[in-house]
Design brief:
alpha/beta, Rossmann fold, seven-stranded mixed beta sheet, 21 helices, 30 strands, binds 5'-O-[(S)-ethoxy(hydroxy)phosphoryl]adenosine
C-alpha cells in the first residue's frame, strides 16, 4: 500500500457521499421480534465485548458442540492467532448432527431450484446422509485430514455436500468459482498441492451449458499432485473419463456407507482455502480454520440476518466466493436455517427471475450485491412490481459500496418500504461480516454499513496510525484479532504479515479507504490498493496485466478502473504492442478472449486502449493515477512532475480523438 498512485484518494471521494442525510429507523414491527431489538441492547453488547473479549467470544463458542473444551479463548502471537486452542470440534457435525439430533431432523436445510425450474428439497436428515456418504467416498479415495481438495462445480446441492464432506473428514476444501478458466485451476491446485478435484460434467447458464470437465482436463495436465477427479453428472456433457483418474460421483456414492462419524479436529485445524486477488502477483490462498470461523460465521449470521426457524433465506452469491461459504453454507446451516439455492442467472429466462422465486417460495430474507440491484434498476421497475413480495422481511447487500440511489430503489421496490436493509462490509480475509446494521436496532442511512459488530474493533486511521476525526477520510483497520480472521496466506506467512500487518503496526489493514460520520457510521470509499471491485468481484489489476502480457502481441500493459453505472467499476487496459503488431479491432477482440481464457470472463477489460508507451516515474513505476484519470475523464489534473516522458501522455490523449 501507500504507493504513489493512491496518495490522497480517501479525501477526494468523501464529498460525494457527505450529502446523504436520510435516516431509517427499524420498523417497530421488526424490532419487537428481533434478537437485538434496540440500540441500548447493541451498545451494551458492544461495550461488554470490548471490556472482556474472551468472555464474549467464549460464551458464543459455548453454544456449539465441542468434543473437547478449549484451553484458552485466544492465544495472540501477533500477527498469528489461535482461537479456542486445545478444543476439539467438527463444523460439519455442528451443521448437521446437532440438528439431526433435534426436532429439525425433518426441516428443510436446502431448497434448490434449477435454471429450468426443477426443484429439490434436502432436509437436515437427508443432507446429513448424503454428506456422510460422500465423506466415506473421500476416505475410500485416500483423503486424509489436512489434504487439500479442489471443488469446481456450478450451484447444485452437491457442491454443499462436497464442502461439508471435506469438513467432516478434515480435508481442506478449496472451491474454485466455475466461471474461472483452466489456468486459474492449475494455479490454485499447484499452490495448494491438492490431491483431488471434485467437479461436474457441466453447469447450466442462461439456457445453455458450459462443459466444466473439459476445463478440468486441460487444467490438470500440469498439476502433478492430483490423483483423482470425481465427476458429478449434471448436464450430460460430452466428456472423456480417463481410466484410473476419473470416477463418476454416482458410482462411488453407490458403494459408500450411509454413516460416517465426524472426525474430532483441533479448533485450529485448517477448514478451507479460498483464493482472492491481491494488489501484486498471483492470487493469495486465504486460509481459514475451524473453531473460530465457526463461531463468527454462525453468530454474525444470527444477529445480522436476525434468523428465525420460520425463515427462508435466499443468498444470490455463488459458493465460489466467500459470501457463499459463510452465508450460504456455514452460517445458515450452523443456525439450522432453511437456505434457498438457485442454480442460474438472475435474468433467465427474463429479468424477474429473483422476484418470481421470492413470490413462489415465500422467501423472507434476501441477500444480494449492489451490482445486481443496479442491473435490476436498469431493466425496469415493472419486473419487480408485477410480483407479490410481501413475504420479505429483511434485505441485505454485500461486496461493494451501495450508492444511495440503488439503496433507495431496493428499499422502495423490493423492500416495500418496510424491510430493513443490512449493508454488510467484510472480506474474504475476515471470514464473516464485520460492519453492518443490526436490523432490529440500528437506524440505517443509504450508503453506509453503519457500525461494527460487537467484539469487532474497526477504526479509520491516518497514515501514521492515529485515529481520524469524524468525516476525515482515512484507512479502515481492525484493531483486535477476531475469531474468523484469516490465519495466514497459504504457504507464505511472510506475505501475510507484510500485506495485512505491516502498514499500521499492531493493526490489520483492510486495503479499504473509509470515513466515519458524526454518528460513528462507517462509509467505505473503496480500495486504496490495486484491487478493483468489478460487479462485486474482486480482481487484482496486476493479474489482468499479466494475462495481457502473456499474449504474444503485448509488450506491456497497465490496467486501471473507471467508475461504471452498473458494474461499480469497469476495467480499462492500456496496452503497448510489440513491434510488428497492429492495434486493430481484431487484436482488441483477441486480447479480450485471451484474458477470458487465462482468468475468466469477469476479468475481460471493458476497454482496451493502445499506448505507444506507458507513463512512468523516473524510478520506472507506472503512474496509475494518471491512467485512472485518463480512463475516466480523458484529462490529467494531477501533478506530473515525476513523469519520465510527458510525451506518452500526449500520445494517449491523441488516441481519444482518433
Ligand atoms: C468491498 C466480499 C463497501 C471492500 C465479502 C472489501 C464492500 C472487498 C462491502 C472484499 C460493503 C465488501 N460496502 N464495500 N458492504 N462489502 N466490500 O474479499 O472493498 O470478495 O475490501 O469479500 O469488497 O471483497 P471480497
Amino acid at each position: 500500500m501507500a504507493t504513489e498512485q493512491t496518495t490522497g484518494q480517501p479525501s477526494e471521494s468523501i464529498s460525494s457521499v457527505l450529502s446523504e442525510r436520510r435516516k431509517f429507523p427499524p420498523p417497530e414491527a421488526f424490532s419487537s421480534k428481533s434478537h437485538i431489538s434496540s440500540m441500548e441492547q447493541y451498545e451494551k453488547l458492544y461495550a461488554d465485548a470490548a471490556a472482556d473479549p474472551d468472555k464474549y467470544w467464549g460464551e458464543l463458542a459455548g453454544q456449539f458442540h465441542w468434543f473437547k473444551p478449549w484451553d484458552s479463548v485466544l492465544e495472540w502471537n501477533a500477527p498469528f492467532a489461535k482461537w479456542f486452542n486445545g478444543g476439539k470440534t467438527n463444523i460439519s457435525y455442528n451443521c448437521l448432527d446437532v440438528h439431526v439430533n433435534s426436532w429439525r431432523k425433518n426441516k428443510a436445510a436446502i431448497i434448490w431450484e434449477g435454471e429450468e425450474g426443477n426443484e429439490r428439497i434436502l432436509t437436515y436428515g437427508e443432507l446429513h446422509r448424503q454428506v456422510s456418504k460422500f465423506a466415506n467416498v473421500l476416505k475410500i479415495a485416500g483423503i486424509k485430514p489436512g489434504d487439500r481438495v479442489a471443488i469446481y462445480m456450478g450451484m447444485v446441492p452437491e457442491l454443499i455436500i462436497a464442502v461439508l464432506a471435506c469438513a467432516r473428514v478434515g480435508a481442506v476444501h478449496n472451491v474454485i468459482f466455475a466461471g474461472f478458466a483452466a489456468h486459474a485451476i492449475t494455479e490454485r491446485v499447484n499452490d495448494s498441492r491438492a490431491k483431488m478435484v471434485i467437479c461436474a460434467d457441466g453447469t447450466r447458464r442462461r439456457g445453455g451449458s458450459i462443459n466444466l470437465k473439459n476445463i478440468v482436463d486441460e487444467a490438470i495436465v500440469n498439476t502433478p499432485s492430483i490423483r483423482n477427479v470425481i465427476v458429478l453428472k449434471v448436464t450430460n456433457e460430452k466428456i472423456t473419463m480417463h481410466d484410473g483418474m476419473d470416477h463418476w460421483w454416482h458410482d462411488l456414492m453407490g458403494l459408500a456407507e450411509d454413516e460416517c462419524e465426524a472426525v474430532q479436529l483441533d479448533s485450529e485445524h485448517p477448514l478451507f482455502l479460498l483464493y482472492t486477488s491481491g494488489s501484486t502477483g498471483k492470487p493469495k490462498g486465504i486460509l481459514h480454520t475451524t473453531g473460530g470461523y465457526m463461531v463468527h460465521a454462525a453468530s454474525s449470521f444470527k444477529y445480522v440476518f436476525d434468523i428465525k426457524d420460520e425463515d427462508i433465506y435466499f443468498c444470490t452469491a455463488d459458493i465460489g466466493w466467500i459470501t457463499g461459504h459463510s452465508y450460504m453454507v456455514y452460517g445458515p446451516l450452523l443456525n439450522g436455517a432453511t437456505v434457498f439455492m438457485y442454480e442460474g442467472a438472475p435474468n433467465y429466462p427474463q429479468w424477474d427471475r429473483f422476484w418470481d422465486i421470492i413470490n413462489r417460495h415465500k422467501i423472507t430474507i434476501f441477500y444480494t450485491a449492489p451490482t445486481a440491484i443496479r442491473a435490476f434498476i436498469r431493466a425496469g421497475n415493472e419486473w419487480v412490481t408485477k410480483h407479490d413480495l410481501r413475504s420479505l422481511r429483511l434485505l441485505g447487500t454485500v461486496g461493494e459500496p451501495i450508492n444511495p440511489e440503488a439503496w433507495m430503489w431496493y428499499h422502495k421496490y423490493v423492500g416495500q418500504e418496510k424491510c430493513p436493509i443490512v449493508d454488510t462490509w467484510w472480506q474474504t480475509e475476515t471470514g464473516g461480516i464485520m460492519v453492518s446494521p443490526m436490523p432490529g436496532a440500528t437506524p440505517t442511512k443509504p450508503g453506509t454499513a453503519t457500525r461494527s459488530l460487537p467484539g469487532i474493533m474497526v477504526d479509520v486511521v491516518r497514515k501514521d496510525g492515529t485515529a481520524c476525526e469524524a468525516n476525515e477520510g482515512g484507512y479502515l483497520v481492525i484493531k483486535q484479532p477476531w475469531p474468523s480472521m484469516l490465519r495466514t496466506i497459504y504457504g507464505d506467512d511472510e506475505r501475510y504479515e507484510k500485506t495485512y500487518w505491516s502498514e499500521f503496526p499492531g493493526m490489520y489493514f483492510t486495503g479499504d479507504g473509509a470515513r466515519k460520520d458524526d454518528d460513528g457510521y462507517i462509509w467505505i470509499m473503496g480500495r486504496v490498493d490495486d484491487v478493483v471491485n468489478v460487479s462485486g468481484h474482486r480482481l487484482g489489476t496486476s493479474e489482468v496485466e499479466s494475462a495481457l502480457v502473456s499474449h504474444e502481441a503485448v509488450a506491456e500493459a497497465a490496467v486501471v478502473s473507471r467508475p461504471d453505472d452498473i458494474k461499480g467499476n469497469a476495467l480499462v487496459a492500456f496496452v503497448t504492442l510489440k513491434d510488428g503488431y497492429e492495434g486493430d479491432a481484431k487484436l482488441r477482440d483477441a486480447l479480450g478472449k485471451h484474458v477470458a481464457k487465462e482468468i475468466g470472463a469477469i476479468a475481460k477489460p471493458d476497454e482496451i486502449k493502445w499506448a505507444k508507451g506507458l507513463p512512468k516515474t523516473r524510478s520506472g513505476k507506472i503512474m496509475r493515477r494518471l491512467l485512472r484519470e485518463l480512463a475516466s475523464s480523458n484529462e490529467i489534473k494531477g501533478d506530473v512532475t515525476t513523469l519520465e516522458d510527458i510525451g506518452v501522455i500526449e500520445n494517449l490523449r491523441e488516441q481519444e480523438d482518433e
